[in-house]
């Protein structure tokens, strides 16, 4: 039995909370919340029977608990290191942390970023894991596994397309996705939002370099912004005509072994403007000898359910499924070893 603390109750956090309550091998011992949910029974927040566990918005209450792991699921923040102080305190208190909001390859961010986190792991004899669908699974575990079929690997291309038109959280849609921004006032492709995603998804390239036994030598931005010709009304609000309705965050990287890699993330409130949205969520291409192409789609079991629920279920499953491995790991930064893949040299 693992004693678990849930941190935050957004769409991901609420799903995780219910899974923890219902899992026969997990015991929920605490819940950290933002806003006005503090003081309520966790069961009420999760729409489940009362548990006797009371939500708190004080980190001191969380630190005082005896727990094996914290499921860290806040909304991604700007700047990227805004969550680090909380995570450092959790790790130093002896609690392992599994986060879906970063920490996939902390060393990529440099010593100033990684060293305090590593020191906290050492003090608490704890582990820090960044795990999710993308980053976390799609490239690091699925794409790299497929590369084992390569006799020669020249180029990796991974593209994601997500229809965000049904997303209902305004602070996510208009802040973290950048929808509704006026391109005459804000250049999303060169601003803080682009910097946030370069930092987050850059950790994927660091992981790939490590797995291929090489080093990252270049990392170039090639972002694309789409505006809407007419107002778009979505669950989160209205996107006025002439403002941003889609962002494609795109990076092109090179490695010392000669392999090139492209990663693109398309989020759109206007799927009719993007033929790519008629295809599966992800396209993976490994070019070389032979050429390998994979497609992957994730959908809710209920075709009439929320468009993003399948993605939420998958992300939470990845994070919760890692609890035994993270708890058993040596103190420090945790990342799943890539499945045996392509290696130009042994």
Task: Explain the overall architecture.
With 346 residues, the protein is of the alpha/beta class. It folds into two domains: 2-132 and 321-334, 3-Layer(aba) Sandwich (Rossmann fold), CATH 3.40.50.720; 138-301, 2-Layer Sandwich (Dihydrodipicolinate Reductase, domain 2), CATH 3.30.360. The protein contains ten helices and 15 strands. Strands 6, 7, 8, 11, 12, 13 and 14 form a seven-stranded mixed β-sheet that branches. A six-stranded parallel β-sheet has the order 2-1-3-4-5-15, with helices on both faces. Strands 9-10 form a two-stranded antiparallel ribbon. β1, α1 and β2 (26-32) form a beta-alpha-beta unit. α1 packs across α9 (309-321) and α4 (84-92) packs parallel to α5. It starts with a strand and ends in a 12-residue tail after the last strand.
Question: What secondary-structure arrangement, pairings included, does this model have?
Answer:
Elements: E1 2-7, H1 11-22, E2 26-32, H2 42-46, H3 59-63, E3 69-72, H4 84-92, E4 96-99, H5 111-124, E5 127-130, H6 138-146, E6 152-163, H7 170-176, H8 192-211, E7 216-221, E8 224-227, E9 232-234, E10 237-239, E11 244-255, E12 260-268, E13 282-289, E14 292-296, H9 309-321, H10 323-328, E15 332-334
Parallel strand pairs: 1-2, 1-3, 3-4, 4-5, 5-15, 6-12
Antiparallel strand pairs: 6-13, 7-11, 8-11, 9-10, 11-12, 13-14
Helix pairs in contact: 1-9, 4-5
